[in-house]
Amino acid sequence: MIKGKVAVVTGSTSGIGLAYARAFAKEGANIVINGLGDAAAIETERAKIESEFGVKCLYSPANMLKHEEIEGMIKLAETELGSCDILVNNAGIQHVAPIEEFPIDKWNMIIAINLSAAFFAMRAAIPGMKARKWGRIINTASAHALVASPFKSAYVSAKHGIAGLTKTAALETAQFGITVNAICPGYVWTPLVEKQIPDTAKARGMTEEQVKKDVLLAAQPTKEFVTVEEVAALAVFLASDNARSITGSMQQIDGGWVAE
Ligand code: NAD
């Protein structure tokens, strides 16, 4: 049922987004990947998805700060691959600082990339989904869509906003065969997180294991990272027929974080 569908995944040049793209390709979906990064590295990943899974995979360089480019990304899927059936809003950035010192440009960028971009992509994709009477919209939110942490005002605000946007879109599309859900991961093992560990260990005089458990995973009861493959498997389930009655939901995958 995912086979032959078209999945557009924003922010899929690394981390969780790349895992989503590969997981949907493994199920036989054609893919539009998107994100920033080194052109040659992106082309390698794009070609690998095509050769490994025998599907079509296009790259959209759309910048999530620009609504015209986001609309162009959806149009690319519709014109080159025939439709946008599965939309995964995943691109995201972070900045950590107290509110009184938080740079205004960082606030604006985080709200634009982590929240407004999802609205623009949904706005462009929903008409086609409604016309075809089938669609899956999956928004990567965060545990920070449900609880806050200090010094992450923009990120927590954007992620709480994604929760509201997800519920609103779910209500508007419920009678059109479309589901809209948010995935709320805790700490996920991505290259971004991995790269911080050796430096943090050095700075704090800790072992790398101590950094993982006592610094990064202090809030996560399992004291283990969620993996990108686990998050992607949840997205594949949400796109399946068996998940057709799940809409407007926040899917926690956080090792128990928000249960505390
Ligand atoms: P990542 O940095 O590995 O990936 C972020 C992706 O977004 C990259 O592909 C990047 O190129 C893209 N991106 C950033 N700015 C962009 C822009 N202006 N236009 C287009 N693409 C842009 O990080 P990740 O950990 O894989 O995060 C992916 C999503 O998961 C984010 O929304 C993040 O908030 C969320 N998340 C991550 C974690 C975690 O612990 N890693 C936890 C909860 C939620």
From TrEMBL:
Among InterPro entries, the record links this protein to: 3-OHbutyrate_DH, NAD(P)-bd_dom_sf, Sc_DH/Rdtase_CS, SDR, SDR_fam
Top-level class of the enzyme under EC nomenclature: oxidoreductase
Looking up Gene3D superfamilies in the UniProt record yields:
NAD(P)-binding Rossmann-like Domain
Question: What is this enzyme's EC?
Answer: 1.1.1.30
Sample GO molecular function, one term: 3-hydroxybutyrate dehydrogenase activity
Which Pfam families did the record assign? adh_short_C2
- PROSITE patterns registered for this protein in UniProt: ADH_SHORT
- Family, similarity comment: Belongs to the short-chain dehydrogenases/reductases (SDR) family.
- According to UniProt, the name of this protein is 3-hydroxybutyrate dehydrogenase
